[in-house]
Amino acid sequence: MTPPPARRRRTGANGAAPVHNFPRRGAVRRAQAITTYGVGSLIAVDHESFIVSGLDEAEQSWSRAESPRIHERRLARLLGVDYFRLPPASDDTSRDGLRVRRFPLMHSCPGCDDLQRHRDFNPPAGRSVCGTCEVDLVPSRFVVACEAGHLGEFPYWQWVHRSKERGASPTAQCGGKLKLRTSGHTSSLRSILVSCSCGQAPEVSMEGSFRRNALKDLGLKCRGPRPWLGASAPAQECGLPLRTLQRGSSAVWQPVLKSALSIPPWSDGRADPLAEHWDALREYDEREHVEIYLKGVFKGQCPVPLDEVMALLDAEREEDPDGESAPTFDHRYRALRNKEYERLRAGNGESEHTRDEQFVCETPLGDQGVLDPLGVIGPMLVKKLREVRALKAFTRLVDAESTTDTKEMPLSERPLRWLPAMEVRGEGVFLRLDEDRLDAWEKAPAVAARIERMRTAHQRVLEQRADDPSHVVPSPATPRMVLLHTLAHVLINEWSLEAGYPAASLRERLYAADDMAGVLVYTATSDSAGSLGGLVAQGEPTMLARAVRSAVRRAEWCSSDPLCMETEASGAGGINLAACHACVMLPETSCEHNNILLDRALLVGTPDEHHVGFFANILSR
């Protein structure tokens, strides 16, 4: 990572890419630049704090050699971009990196207790120390944010000079200097004391600053600051309520990630000679019109056969939801998942394709009858897969899994034709549940009652986080979704124990809808853990049946029982039921839904209602 470039930038010989000599502040992995330290996020390096700059700067700085382009046509079409780019490499030979800016600007000095902007301490060049005390400066622990994604400095001056009735703050500065000290009596906010040398206001603590209406009571509203875009970026009109947050809180930045598997006919691994022409080709419905266009562009020598071009265009149209004149993003994203589900069911044999094929999915050779008593059908061995995960936007204070476009903050000031992304190549196991048995199980009143409790709790949380309750995204909680989600978690835990995989190296991909009931467990990292074939071997019917039985039996008991199983609600907002870190929860990188909507009772039943468990018949034998 490097600080933002100066206005003048040196270029290499003959107009080559610029050579950067900015000081390196730290290093992050490429995957972290998408999932943890993406655009707009805060990152702590030693005793300093920075915010990752927007893509407007990245477009000018990321070198092609260190941040190559990657393509995934289905996902690029969905997100409205032409291609994706890997974040710059961060090894010792790297000359490029992520641009960062110092934030927050308010710092305090443990020596003299001054609280002011970083530059006002007159630190020596390249260092973050008090020019008087020569003590390392401490970035402000507190920032403010709104649900629209804006981020700003905590208003210390208004907090100190507030009236006793907590009314509107004064408009004129007093000219005094702020001081911040810690009494040391406790580790609570009450021990953090802020004062002003003007003497017009008493010393106050930070206690109460995290109340939902604490800043609203001071008459403060969001003015739309976007520090990741630099000082030149104009503030947006906002006016939403501000919330105080700890600088390191997960609510400060949550990535909106969208992913897609490379499936036929887009997975042959070849370069696309028509990449610049697809927007024009999509305008034509008739084969003759497409042929005329290609002949005009390529002078009769089109590098792609006309039949293949038509097949690709037809495949794209099939992913548009039926009956939608202007389908929403969510509808199109679900349609993308539907096509993945169909391809995983149908397979894609290795013998029929070249070695460049990026998706190989085959039916196992063993007897699948051993899975019938479990209600598991259609296992598939995904011997090769490629997934592209793109950072679409980010949110603050709002759960990225349930956000709407209005709550998402874009990564750049102006529209760009690319997004940062990463690709994962690995393997996986796909399985489905028997539809007839699943339908009968879903209709059980006890099952519906448990799901209704979870759905109601989740919907309440979504409404509390929304400005307009009438436009809240409905909760995805359904019996089959929670069942598949919990089953994926216990299988990942089982394979982590029995097959030697780290749990964080495996990931779930759920296919839960009225016409889908499948789950794909695949390697989620691009290192050697995803290419050794060990996970595919677990998909053979005999081994899969043994793994499902063992996973379900492990889920029958938790070290936190009976509290875990008998609890009325668990997790943040009571969105989970029988689920905790001792039984079914996974590392956050492995779960699609941030460890919510889980209930192992739907797998094994409860002591009073054994029939609630989909796999209860396994335990009775």
Question: What structural keywords apply?
Answer:
16 helices, eight-stranded mixed β-sheet, 621 residues, six-stranded antiparallel β-sheet, alpha+beta
Report the principal-axis shape: globular
Taking the sheet with the most strands, its summary is: 8 strands, mixed
Distance between the termini: 58 Å
Strand content: 15-25%
Helix percentage range: 10-25%
From the helix content, strand content and strand pairing, which structural class follows?
Answer: alpha+beta
- Can you count the beta strands? 20
Mean pLDDT over all positions: 84
Given as residue ranges, the uncertain stretches (5+ residues, pLDDT < 50) are: 5-19, 165-171
Rg over C-alpha atoms, rounded to the nearest angstrom: 27 Å
The number of helical elements comes to 16
Give a quick summary of the entry.
The protein is α+β, with helices and mostly antiparallel strands and about 625 residues long. Helices cover about 25% and strands about 20% of the residues.
Question: Can you describe what's shown?
Answer:
The protein has 621 residues and is an alpha+beta fold. Helices cover 24% and strands 18% of the residues. The protein is built from 16 helices and 20 strands. The chain has helices at residues 32-35, 55-61, 73-79, 156-160, 278-281, 287-298, 306-318, 329-346, 435-442, 445-464, 479-498, 534-537, 541-555, 563-566, 601-604, 616-619; strands at residues 42-45, 48-52, 69-70, 83-85, 100-102, 106-108, 114-117, 138-139, 142-145, 151-153, 178-182, 192-196, 204-205, 243-246, 254-261, 360-362, 376-395, 418-433, 506-513, 516-523. The strands form 4 sheets. Strands 3, 4, 15, 16, 17, 18, 19 and 20 form an 8-stranded mixed β-sheet that branches. It has a 6-stranded antiparallel β-sheet with strand order 8-6-7-11-12-13. The chain has a 3-stranded antiparallel β-sheet with strand order 1-2-5, with no helix packed on it. Strand 1 (42-45) and strand 2 form a beta hairpin. Helix 3 runs antiparallel to helix 8 and helix 11 crosses helix 13. The longest helix has 20 residues, at 445-464. The protein is globular.
